[in-house]
Amino acid sequence: MVKLTKFDRMLHYIIWRCGDKKNVGVEVLCKLCYFSDFDHYEKTCESITGHTYIRLSHGPVPLDYDGRLGVLADEGLVSSAKGSSYNHTQHRYTSLSCPDTSELSKVELETIDSAISRYSDMNGVDIEKISHADMPWRCAGDGSIIDYGLAMYRDARTSVDNTIYEDDGE
After folding, report:
1. What is the pTM for the complete model shown?
2. Looking at the predicted structure, is the pLDDT value of residue 88 above 80?
């Protein structure tokens, strides 16, 4: 048995929560992982997993996401299938068991759940657009690592810290 990383556990949890939605393929899964990690960093100055994300043309992508999905499939935790959604080939994953969340804190799970609530109903094109509006992705060069620290400079479109955008009435 392979030792699962914290990223693997988060990914499995996300698949378990929303992998059965018709719109959730690999592109949406990648963005849900990204938003979970970067939202948490914005709130706590720490990511959930510490995983590396790369700036690609379709938005942020976790490094070696194919390998991490393969590990989950090899461990019998998820199954994969090809389908289509919105006239595109889609690689979908379904959870085969309840995920082990013992390495994820209550606050981390709340952050993941919040990202799922905000973004899991979007299709790949819509979640790509919102990820392109996010400051960390915008500031990274093509093919380069996305800096977690830039989550502190998000605007109202992607920020989870709404207190910095409240109007004090003056």
Report:
1. 0.91
2. no
